Amino acid sequence: MISIEGLTVEFGGNPLFNDITYVINKKDRIALVGKNGAGKSTMLKIIAGLQQPTSGAVNFPKDLTIGYLPQQMQLSDSRTVMAEAEQAFSHIFEMEARIDRMNAELLEHTDYESEEYQELIERVSNATEQLHLMGSANYQAEIERTLIGLGFLRSDFDRSTSEFSGGWRMRIELAKLLLQRPDVLLLDEPTNHLDIESIQWLETFLATRANAVVLVSHDRAFIDAVTTRTIEISLGRIYDYKVNYSRYVQLRADRLEQQRRAFENQQKQIQDTEAFIERFRYKATKSVQVQSRIKQLDKLERVEVDEVDNSRLNLKFPPAPRSGDYPLIFDNVGKSYGDHMVFAHVDFTIKRGDKVAFVGKNGEGKSTLVKCIMNEIDYTGNLKIGHNVKIGYFAQNQAQLLNGEITVFDTIDRVAVGDIRTKIRDILGAFMFGGEASDKKVKVLSGGEKTRLAMIRLLLEPVNLLILDEPTNHLDMRTKDVLKQAIKDFDGTVIVVSHDREFLDGLVTKVYEFGNKRVREHLGGIYDFLQWKKMDSLQELEKEKVAEKPHVERIPSENKLSYEEQKEQQRQLKRLERSISDCEKKVEELELKIKQIEVRLSSVEGASDSSLYEEHGRLKKELDETIEKWTEMTMELEEKNKQI
Q1: Is 563-643 in CATH node 1.10.287?
Q2: Which of 143, 270, 430, 486 is deepest in the core (most CB within 10 A)?
Q3: Rg from Cα positions in the chain
Q4: Which of 413, 406, 443 is nearest to 428 (CA)?
Q5: 328-390+462-553 belongs to which homologous superfamily?
């Protein structure tokens, strides 16, 4: 479908890619991985046609459609949420306008028997069939389903996009892309602006309803759920694995081990050859052998080890000065903006050494409560900061606040004080900004490198309460793992605002859920919380009137089922599995029929056959309904399996 051939990209004479070739096939689910600065975002921009390579080409059919979601974009604020999402169907509106113009033209004609009149009628008929084929009858329902899946409420549909934060406006752009159903979706960090529930919805959508997908993401759980192929960019080359990310990690370790062994064997061979040359260089009787060995060395293709030495990446927070036993106490804390209440009656205490997560949909008040703690905004109630609490705060937009016109070294030099100024080079080296990298201007750094630089600033003074608001956005897998370990080892108190399930897993022991204008405390890790949430959602669906739960909510214990109940549960699961299997077979049959009709429509005879258009539209609608049914049953099966 898309062929990347001999792709080479150079910046200032330094190669980023070197003669890369690969193919993106129909229905591929590709994770593009590599360390920060390896060129993942650049690769997406080149495929999208927004950036030109130094040499090489990207080839694809003329009628192929590509949808691209960058990390940052300029957003329009002149429409409502619904009107902006409807832009995904501008082709339908254009076709409707064209039909209206032709109908108006028909009304002006009185020569009903003329060839021109008959030709106009035929054009109107063909355009109407094409409009039906485009799905004009049900696009409104598709928009609503997608916006709700990405976290919007129906009451948001008529609000102006200017009322929403940048993260929510990015969701609208994502919704437009998904609704357009392009042949290839290019997504650069799509989960950065989504909450956990929206990420899970997007996982299902991409896995079941999208065409080809190429995505860059540092959310390990997300790419494992979505992708089946992993392309690693390393030292200007690519390595293509036909497996998901977790399997790729194992195969990559094997590959690097083989490379290291081959490198060591070759180095021994080179040393032996050089020793022979040195030993017999001046012996006439060995001159032929010496010349032969010299030519052998010249022709030798040197083995490179792709693994970049990042062993020096060593993130360690300074020892935390001892604080009081209770760094934060919330007593009836609330926050409103005019008539809009964000949250109220927040009552909980964070103890010294706690490591907790703030989770919930975007806009429910996680960052707002953090701003209350930082005293950046006013609030009601009493928020007490404990004795000798020193706060280190990493905001969501921390990396964007850096001055792009100064160097990496100057960024740290301007905030460092005392003896620490003599160790700036060492500190930068520990964060992989050693050598020439420290003299780069901040504006040329990748998103992950900027985040890492902002993190260094946080480490310059000892604190005992770390507040990290989405710290993993733009960080590569390796740096995320290092940051997670550093937080585990930190002997102070930590609040992490994050939607990254893999990052939070094993890190936090308490979860604070923001939603419905309140904050609820859950004991346990992030996956304990998610399991509880699924049970909670089922209770809400059943509309049971449950009394208010206690302030500290524990995971509900499972009810023991009788033998007969267990048998019935297993029978239900088997019926569901059979239904899912039947749906999958039906999808395959429908896709084959649609493909056969599209082949006939591409011919001159077929293009004029209106019955083919009707059949194509009917089959497409039946396919969408079958996929929708399959999605619902698959999610139901997952929920039932988790309850057993």
Answers
A1: yes
A2: 143
A3: 30
A4: 413
A5: P-loop containing nucleotide triphosphate hydrolases (3.40.50.300)
